[in-house]
What we know:
Blueprint: H1 4-29, H2 32-44, H3 48-103, E1 108-114, E2 124-127, E3 140-143, E4 146-154, E5 159-163, E6 171-175, E7 181-186, E8 197-203, E9 213-216, E10 231-242, E11 246-253, E12 262-266, H4 274-278
Antiparallel strand pairs: 1-2, 1-12, 2-5, 3-4, 3-12, 4-5, 6-7, 6-9, 7-8, 8-11, 9-10, 10-11
Amino acid sequence: MSFAPDRFSSRRDTLAFAICLVLSVAARLAPPAVQDSVSLTISETVLAPFLALQNQAELIKASRGRYARLVRSRDSALVAALAAQAVHEENERLREILALSARLPAHHVSAEVLPQAAPTSGLMAVLSAGRTSGVTPKAPVVAPGGLVGVIRSPAATTSVALLWTHPDFRVSAMTLDGSVFGIVAPRGTEGPNTMLLELRGVPYRDRVEPGTMIYTSGLGGPSGVYPRGIPIGTVIAVGEEREGWSRTYVVRPAVHPAAISHVVILTGAAIDVREAFLERP
């Protein structure tokens, strides 16, 4: 077996070490001007690619840091903007409720719509006022836009309201001038019809044009359930026709239950409230 290549490799390593040692001693003992010149030459030649890579890595690191700070700043600004928008919308709703309360001639109680996770949350709502506030069964529930529903069962401090989306909801209705009367009920319980109402039982000889606002009729008088003049919705189309007998009209509700956070419960006699809603700014 030959060991010549190993001996040659060992000599080469020793020679390289000796050269490096001599160069390091010479560089150490050289004048500062010579040291600076040699250092600059090595930096601009042998070490240039490595220094460039190091500089690029530092730039990438700094860029990532700036990007992370920018993202955090943007997210904070977005959260603040959304919170400000939510507060603004909440204040607008509260101002509208206060304005409606000031205009209503009937006795009433303001209430908040409490959150709930029940499967019937789209058909009924829990309100923050009950018997201790004078709330009774069948008391109308309204918002600044119009009719929301009716109280079904009041407890001591809360109440359950049946919304207009409920299949059992019914209300006697009329046009503003009182020339056309009918019964308003939910149009359907499934699909797109769940968010629409219909005006039923309108005599065939009477015609209601699209865009006409429908109001509660108050036919029961002061002892009735709904006072006269609460907006229910706007006629958007003819639904069904029974030739020579009656027509049914499709009505877009004045109030969407999902868009309300505060309501007014009418607790007094069912007196005419048309002016309170007609004066809405």
